[in-house]
Design brief:
The protein has about 140 residues and is an alpha+beta fold. The protein contains three helices and seven strands. The relative contact order is 0.12.
């Protein structure tokens, strides 16, 4: 579960059960991630976490980076694509095509974030309901 708390005007902190936290704010706010940036980071991070062992074991290196960006609709209110580019050294890899197949398959099958994005997960919003008082009609 993720808990989100308002800490200032347009400033929030998300915390998980393991004690990690991240600042969330508007896209032009210093020192925080916007919600869309977090979505993009989640897609790239999931691809990296899913493929890390496969890539590093086969490349013999320890460098793995990713770049991702949100492609938004014309209105700017929807993310229509999140291209993720993984980068790693192929100089020690005998069969780069085979590694690409394995990495793509792993990400497509096991990356929860990108799999969820492909299925367009719902995000139901629950709001507090007004408490009924003794003077309210039944």
């Amino acid at each position: 579960m993720i808990n989100l708390e308002r800490v200032g005007e347009h400033e929030f902190v998300a915390t998980n059960d393991r004690g990690a936290s991240v600042r969330i704010g508007r896209k032009d706010q210093d020192g925080s991630f916007s919600p869309v940036e977090l979505l993009v980071a989640a897609a790239a991070g999931c691809a990296m976490v899913t493929s890390e062992t496969l890539i590093l074991r086969r490349t013999g290196g320890d460098r793995l980076t990713a770049v991702a960006d949100a492609v938004q609709s014309e209105s700017g209110n929807e993310v229509v694509s999140i291209p993720v580019t993984l980068s790693y050294d192929l100089s020690a890899v005998e069969d780069a095509e085979a590694l690409e197949v394995v990495v793509r398959r792993a990400v497509e099958q096991f990356c929860t974030v990108t799999r969820t994005l492909k299925q367009s997960a719902t995000a139901p919003l629950q709001l507090p309901t007004p408490l009924q008082t003794a003077s309210d009609p039944l």
